[in-house]
Every structure is written in C-alpha cells, then in structure tokens.
Amino acid sequence: MTDQAVSIGDGQPNLFAITQAQLDAAAEVLQLDPALHAVLREPMREMHVTLPVRMDDGSIKVFKGYRVQYNDSRGPTKGGLRFHPKETIDTIRALAAWMTWKCAVVDIPLGGGKGGVACNPKEMSQGELERVSRAYIRAVGRILGPDVDVPAPDMYTNPQVMAWMVDEYSILQGHNEFGVITGKPLALGGSKLRSDATARGGMYCIRAAAKVLGLDTQNATMAIQGFGNAGQYAAILGQKMLGATIVAISDSQGAIYDPDGINPYRAIEHKQKTGSVKDFTITGARPISNADLLELDVDILAPAALENVITAANAGHIKARIVAELANGPTTPDADAILYANGIYVIPDFLCNSGGVITSYFEMVQNAYSYYWDEQTVDARLDAKITPAFHAVHNRAQELGVNNRIAAYCVAVERVAEAVRLRGWA
Ligand code: NAD
Fold it and tell me: Which of 25, 97, 218, 291 could form a disulfide with 243 if both were Cys (CB 3.0 to 4.6 A apart)?
C-alpha cells in the first residue's frame, strides 16, 4: 500500500482507507480467514443524525452528528466524541476502527466506537455548546449505555461536555447512569489521573522501548509536536517520569527549540497567557518551524498533534531513535516503511496513546462498583496493563520480522477475530 493508494484525491489520505489497508497487511501476515477479514474491514453499525439547535440569536441551526460502533465482539464499544467543523464520517470510521484495535491490543474487554458533531465550538457560546451536547445525546442515546457503547472526550470536547451529556442521558433514563460516559469531572464519577492518562501511558511505553533499545532516558532528549492535552502532559511527565530533557515543543502557530531544556510548566503558563508557545524564548529557546521540530536530532520524538505529519517527504530526515505516537495516525503508510528501513523505533499510535482508554475503562469499572480508587492504584493498574501490551507487540514484531505497527495489528486483530469466530459471526 502507498500513500497515493489511500488518497482521497486532494492529496489528503483517507484515514479509513489507511486503517483498512493496515488491517489488510496484518490479515496477510496472520493468514486470516477471508470471512473474518471481511467482517473486520467494516463498521458493525453507524448512526447519522440531524440536530436542530436553537442558537443564542433565536435562529435554528442544523448540525450533522454521527456515532460509529465498529465492533463489539469483545465488549461494549468505547470511543471519544469530536466536535469539529470538518468532521467526516470516514474520519470517525477510521477512529472507531483504531479504538477496536486499541482496546484489543491492551486486552481490555471493550470494542471500538467513535462519534462526533460537525460544528465549530470556537464560534459557539457555552449555552450553544450545551444545547448541541444535549441534542446529540437525545439523538443517539438509544444506542448508548454502560453495557452497549460508552463515549468519552476527544477533539474539542471536554469534561464539562461529558457532564452535560451524562446529565441528559440520566434524565432520559430516569436515574443516574454515570457509567455511560467517561472522562467526566471527578464530582460526577470521573477517575483520578484520567486527564494525564494518555501521556502517562505513552511514558510507560517509552520507558519500555528505551529498555529494549538500551537507551538511558535520564540522558535522553525529547521533542514534542502539539502542546494540548497530550503534548503538555507528555512534556511534564517526560521530565518527571523519564528524567528526559524536553528540548522542543510546538503548537499550530509555531515551535521552539532549546538544547538546554524547556521548562514545561513555564511554557504552559506562557501558552495560557498568549495562546501559543511560539515566542516563549525568554529562557533562551529559539523559534524553529514545525517541520524542523520533526527532524531534530533527538532521542525521542512525540507527535501529539495531528494525523499525517510524518510522510514520505520527511520520514527520511527523521533522526529520533524512538517515535512515540501520542497522536492518532501521525505517520502515513509510505513513511512507516521508511522509518522501519532506517531502524527508527516507532511505538504505534493505538498502543502508545492507549493510556486514555485504559483509564476510561477503569472509570467504567469504578462507576459500576460505585467505589473509587486513589491515584496510586490507578497509576499502578495502568502500568500493569500497558507495559505487558508493549512487550507483547515488541516480541511479536521480533518473531515475525515486521514493524511494530503490523505487530500491534496482529496482536489486536487475532483477539478480535477469535471473539468474532467464537460468537459465530464468521
Ligand atoms: P488538543 O486539541 O488538546 O491539542 C492539539 C495540539 O496540537 C494543540 O496545541 C494545537 O495547537 C496543536 N497543533 C495543531 N496543529 C498543529 C500543527 N500543524 N503543528 C503543531 N501543532 C499543532 O488535542 P489532544 O487531546 O492533545 O490530542 C492530540 C492528538 O492526540 C490527537 O491526534 C488525538 O487524537 C490524540 N489523542 C489524544 C488523547 C487524549 O486523551 N487527549 C487520547 C488519545 C489520542
């Protein structure tokens, strides 16, 4: 498969075509039964809804919403909700597929789902955002439930949006149903450590990768693309958990580089004040481009922003020893082959960023028992889930002589395929 083969024609790769092509590659390695392969290539269920919402000026605006339940053979579907003006059903299908493989690769008893509303939260008031959130739940609530499908925050949605949604769902049910959504505020049944869980899980993966590569993270340098939820916590925890020096960070407006290290807390403060890290140069950092950041000579590169940023055009210039994919889909298929050929160790997205869904699963368990864990318990259980998953993928890659992404697919697809087969679906 090449980047061109999965392009949607305007040069932008179609993410769902990429997920299907990645599955095809794993199916070939696994010699997967064609009927099972066919079942796993398509989403199990999709709901498309139209949401009429009253805006603050009294007008009615109509929004399109989606929920995709990709595969629930191993348990209720699980996956975030995105509020994005350019939301497309293919992006949501792709992300729902990745959630299926993500839950399977870390062996939690959940399937994969994803949803979203095409809207621009940056142009909406809090009241409008609340009405869109509630309208979405009224429209798709009939296919959600703690044992059916459990959403969570994703791009441009947050714990407050989850709070409105869990409230709306609870009103529809006539009783509190906290387990229907994760990523909730602590006061409404959220889990401790949920907010930094994606980056924290990524750090456990990097720690394990460094061990197999013989890299001392205490002396390692790290560059992070994207300075939002995943990127900011990656900077803090990269320093705290790994002892790494954060030498470069970026956001949509620009990047900065300081070989002596950037203080993540001060950078966050600066971004909160000015809206960007791009001119946080007071401590000696210098501005660089986002493209330069990816090509820095660092030990660890963590893409934590967008999809399709490491492509055939720049993969050959990447110098990092470890690429830790906190973002979903940052590397195109052509780039994957180049990184592998160059001996760059990629921790694939649906393993590297699975800390979020693992902790969401812990949140569901805590909601079901109405019994809440302390930080140490959540942290230890996250480590106990993600570190063995990393080693399962690493070992499979070594055994099969394939890259880590195909190995992660093999581990995950085998588990989902077994459940599908045992249930008699194929
Ligand atoms: P976010 O919206 O909080 O942050 C995104 C960051 O990327 C922002 O700082 C933005 O300025 C920056 N950005 C946008 N365009 C950029 C560009 N061209 N170059 C550099 N930076 C750019 O989002 P997030 O929650 O941190 O998610 C980031 C990625 O991680 C996404 O791919 C998401 O799917 C993935 N992810 C996040 C979580 C989570 O728990 N937050 C879980 C799993 C996967």
Answer: 218
